[in-house]
Design goal:
Number of helices: 12
Order of helices and strands: HHEHEEHHEHEEHEEEHEHEHEEHH
Largest sheet: 9 strands, mixed
Strand order of the largest sheet: 3-4-2-5-1-6-7-8-13
Number of strands: 13
Strand content: 15-25%
Shape: globular
Radius of gyration: 20 Å
Helix content: 25-40%
Structural class: alpha/beta
Length: 344
């Protein structure tokens, strides 16, 4: 019975946290065959949004979302905006669904109390420096944050969620990846067609260089460039031998960053996004790094999912998101930073 339960558990992990399909990157026969399913998925999504009652809150709501299935960089953008507002004296409450969490209802995330299985990896990471509420019901999350005295609600994801009326919406795009093959799920990585995704956001946050020339398809939409910079104090000495693993939207971004920083990457192991690590998943990497006298590195998001018994053997590497045009961010947040100048 124990063996059967173990196999069932492993099957559920692979089903709930599948690897990103390679065909999402290209227009090929698999994507074309799935196109009718994508059309049906898009139709259902439109009907769900049309039938959803939108609630207007008493405080401003900033929504940071993406059009692709993970990996665009929205959570670093959320953290950067939250930190900036906090520095300017604005009390911010972040709300998130908490992908993969087992808990129910609305929970205020406490890094000292909660495990990643209860609240999700991204909320646990954000809660290291910000007040975060998780729950499927974003309206209930918002009311809890407002009850705690928050002046602004910052939604980590939710661009396709119509339950709350947004004051400002921002679309985050990974410049290197763009839109993949450009198809809607499951034929491609898109949550909705680009033309629909551009209707609500006031601006697009483009992280990194626009390698797919997507800016040309954004029309007159404001594009704000940003970049990811490593928190060097969280990394080992430059030139070191390292072994790396990551279970994020696009793990190759982390591996490429390490190589670009001058590390000798002996081995790089990719896992699915939000993958719930167990000891057996990482033991081989730990042994290999030890045998090679190399540092074992991962992202801070991944580190929240590492079993406690292995944390001492692994170095979590942090990043900062930096906006190239802070004047544009100031303009977007002017109604929050200077409410006395708002009309009406």
């Amino acid at each position: 019975m124990g063996k059967i339960q173990e196999l069932w558990k492993e099957w559920k992990r692979k089903l709930c946290f599948p690897a990103t399909p390679d065909y999402w990157n290209h227009v090929n026969i698999v994507a074309m065959l799935l196109f009718p399913v994508s059309a049906f998925y898009d139709l259902l999504s439109r009907k769900r949004r049309a039938m959803t009652t939108s609630h207007k809150l008493k405080v401003p709501v900033i929504c940071v979302g993406n059009i692709t299935m993970g990996g665009a960089g929205k959570t670093p953008v959320v953290l950067a905006l939250a930190n900036y507002l906090k520095l300017n004296g604005v009390s911010v409450g972040i709300i998130s669904r908490g992908y993969g969490r087992s808990g129910r209802g609305v929970i205020k995330v406490d890094p000292q109390l909660h495990q990643v299985s209860q609240v999700g990896d991204e909320p646990l990471q954000l809660a290291q420096s910000q007040d975060v509420w998780v729950g499927k019901d974003k309206v209930a999350c918002s009311h809890m944050a407002m009850k705690a005295g928050k002046q602004v609600i910052l939604m980590d994801d939710g661009l396709q969620n119509a339950s709350i009326e947004k004051t400002l919406s921002l679309l985050v795009i990974d410049g290197a990846y763009g839109l993949g093959n450009g198809f809607v799920f499951p034929a491609g990585p898109l949550r909705e067609p680009l033309v629909d995704a551009l209707r609500l956001p006031k601006a697009v946050i483009m992280i990194g260089d626009d390698e797919t020339h997507l800016t040309e398809r954004l029309g007159k939409k404001m594009v704000i460039k940003a970049r990811v910079e490593p928190k060097k104090e969280t990394f080992p000495p430059t030139g070191s031998n390292v072994v790396a693993f990551a279970g994020i939207g696009r793990p190759e971004k982390f591996f490429s960053m390490l190589k670009g920083m001058g590390y000798n990457v002996l081995r790089a192991q990719a896992f699915p996004d939000h993958y719930p690590y167990e000891e057996k998943d990482l033991q081989d990497l730990c042994h290999y790094a030890g045998d090679q006298h190399a540092y074992l590195l991962t992202t801070q998001k991944d580190f929240t999912r590492v079993p406690s018994s292995l944390k001492e053997s692994i170095t979590p590497c942090g990043i900062n998101l930096v906006f190239d045009e802070m004047e544009a961010i100031d303009a977007l947040l002017h109604f929050i930073l200077h409410p006395e100048l708002n009309n009406g």
